[in-house]
């Protein structure tokens, strides 16, 4: 629960904006690569590799200042820079005269008190239902004594302890938007992810608790702002009550779409002054641009709130993103099928491709959980297919020693082995080559050439996994994210 609540509380705190704006942005970064592929017996190594990659990614991230560790002040400078990057813009930055009002979010029991507690519930007097503006969440809790400690995540070569604090999310005592003056919109962009409906539902329900009456959904991502044949969808508790029971997005999703200034024009026309964007790195780049355009440039009092979505779980500093747990759980079914196929065949080889454009968290967690994977290939770790240290030689060894083998490969792994097409999708994302199909073909060819029988079965469950409804733990995470996303635009935040 500690881990879940930290994630839930810090996600919006670090990633979503305050009253007038989108800030945030920790986004999928390519982790640096090291050598070798990993077999299940080497998962300890794999974890260390991924940790090392995370550390390097953190130090070497774009725009990060070069740190001179010989400077005695480096720690203070690092912390200041961290705070600068995590500072959340506030409505009063743009509108210094904006006046707060008491929160309309009621945390107390609404039902009449029973006779036993006629004078009020005993805890009422001690009730502090709101989050103090100065509450902070500590991002990292392990003080690694040395860079060689297992899984050490260090900033400098001595692994100095540097505290990193972020705002705590949740409802505040004072708010800056009068609920009756709010027209809130929700938009879901990019690819599907389990839990989108759960977040939409919770945003709507929480807005209603604050007293917001005008809530709409924008159909099919940012495209819904450009197509005149797509009209906004009125949302209420009644409409969203059961949407979490199915996967997908009630509103639909899309890639590509109108320019940022067109989106802002349409928002102005529609009178939208609060927008919740649910999406990945592209969506949030868009949200940031919308904020810059409307709040900073056009001086509009509009809140832009980002709820980060990545099924791949590749956002640094966050424990977990919604949909990831569900994806790992659902991937078990594909892995188990591949295992059964492989073990029921003479010299069976099962191959499963899972999501993960730039990171192998789904593949790695699903492999670890299943206990049925012999080789796990992830984008962080380059590998060779051919040659004495290649995957195929290892497969031959597994066939000879165990009689069968199962491979799990993340979609972004081994892209260097495939022909580049330079093709992009409607949002400008590079279209990846199909590493799963490539491994399947090369495996068949290899065993044919060495004259060893092999029965190769390939499973790609990508869209089946993505379209699932969220499991219980993702459902809770989504509910907390949805609630906190609403509280953020309504609250005042002092700088860190
Ligand atoms: N730099 C940008 N500025 C403005 N809008 C952007 C930018 N990048 C992407 N977008 C828009 O954001 C939307 C979603 O982007 P994209 O398709 O890359 O998905 P994503 O949010 O990264 O999610 P996923 O994790 O599924 O890839 C698209 O409508 C796209 O046009
Ligand atoms: O086919 P679509 O919808 O463009 O989405 C593809 C991408 O989205 C993901 O499902 C999630 O990041 C990836 O697995 C995949 O590369
Ligand atoms: Mg993306």
UniProtKB/TrEMBL annotation:
Cellular component, GO, one term: cytoplasm
Pfam families tied to this protein: PFK
Cofactor: Mg(2+)
Keyword terms, alphabetized: Allosteric enzyme, ATP-binding, Glycolysis, Kinase, Magnesium, Metal-binding, Nucleotide-binding, Transferase
Gene Ontology MF: a single term: ATP binding
GO BP, sorted A to Z: fructose 6-phosphate metabolic process
Region (Disordered): 1-21
Reactions it catalyzes: beta-D-fructose 6-phosphate + ATP = beta-D-fructose 1,6-bisphosphate + ADP + H(+)
Polar residues bias (residue ranges): 1-15
InterPro entries found in the cross-reference section: ATP_PFK, PFKA, Phosphofructokinase_dom, PKF_sf
Record-annotated Phosphofructokinase domain positions: 184-487
Function (record text): Catalyzes the phosphorylation of D-fructose 6-phosphate to fructose 1,6-bisphosphate by ATP, the first committing step of glycolysis.
Protein name, as recorded: Phosphofructokinase domain-containing protein
Annotated organism of origin: Linum tenue
């Amino acid at each position: 629960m500690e881990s879940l609540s930290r994630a839930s509380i810090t996600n919006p705190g670090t990633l979503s904006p305050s009253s007038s704006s989108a800030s945030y942005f920790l986004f999928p970064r390519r982790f640096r690569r090291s050598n070798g592929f990993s077999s299940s017996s080497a998962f300890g190594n794999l974890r260390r590799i991924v940790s090392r990659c995370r550390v390097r990614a953190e130090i070497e991230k774009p725009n990060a200042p070069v740190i001179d560790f010989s400077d005695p002040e480096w720690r203070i400078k690092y912390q200041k820079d961290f705070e600068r990057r995590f500072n959340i813009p506030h409505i009063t930055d743009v509108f210094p005269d904006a006046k707060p009002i008491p929160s309309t979010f009621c945390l107390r029991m609404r039902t009449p008190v029973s006779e036993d507690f006629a004078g009020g519930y005993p805890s009422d007097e001690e009730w502090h239902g709101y989050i103090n503006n100065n509450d902070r969440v500590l991002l990292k809790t392990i003080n690694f004594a040395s860079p060689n400690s297992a899984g050490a995540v260090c900033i400098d070569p001595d692994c100095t302890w540097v505290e990193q604090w972020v705002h705590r999310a949740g409802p505040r005592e004072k708010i800056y938007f009068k609920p009756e003056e709010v027209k809130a919109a929700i938009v879901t962009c990019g690819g599907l992810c389990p839990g989108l409906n759960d977040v939409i539902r919770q945003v709507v329900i929480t807005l209603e608790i604050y007293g917001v009456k005008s809530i709409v959904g924008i159909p099919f991502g940012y495209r819904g702002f450009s197509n005149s044949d797509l009209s906004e969808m009125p949302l209420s508790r009644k409409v969203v009550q059961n949407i979490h029971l199915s996967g997908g997005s009630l509103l639909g999703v899309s890639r590509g779409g109108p320019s940022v200034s067109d989106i802002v024009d349409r928002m102005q026309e529609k009178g939208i002054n609060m927008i919740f964007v649910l999406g990945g790195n592209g969506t949030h780049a868009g949200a940031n641009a919308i904020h810059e355009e409307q709040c900073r440039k056009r001086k509009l009092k509009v809140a832009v709130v980002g709820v980060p979505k990545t099924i791949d779980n590749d956002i640094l500093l966050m424990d977990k993103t919604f949909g990831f747990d569900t994806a790992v759980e659902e991937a078990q079914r594909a892995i188990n099928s591949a295992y059964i196929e492989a073990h029921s065949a003479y010299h069976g080889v099962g191959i499963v491709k899972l999501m993960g454009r730039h990171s192998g968290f789904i593949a790695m967690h699903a492999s670890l959980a299943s206990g049925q994977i012999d080789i796990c290939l992830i984008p962080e770790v380059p590998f060779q297919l051919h040659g004495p240290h290649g995957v195929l030689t290892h497969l031959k060894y597994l066939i000879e020693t165990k009689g069968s083998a199962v491979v799990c490969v993340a979609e972004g792994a081994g892209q260097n082995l495939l022909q580049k097409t330079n093709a992009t999708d409607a949002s400008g994302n590079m279209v990846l080559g199909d590493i799963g199909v490539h491994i399947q073909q090369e495996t068949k060819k290899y065993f044919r050439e060495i004259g060893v029988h092999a029965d190769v079965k390939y499973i790609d469950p990508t869209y089946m996994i993505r379209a699932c409804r969220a499991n219980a733990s993702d459902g809770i995470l989504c509910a907390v994210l949805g609630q906190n996303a609403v509280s953020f635009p309504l609250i005042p935040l002092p700088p860190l």
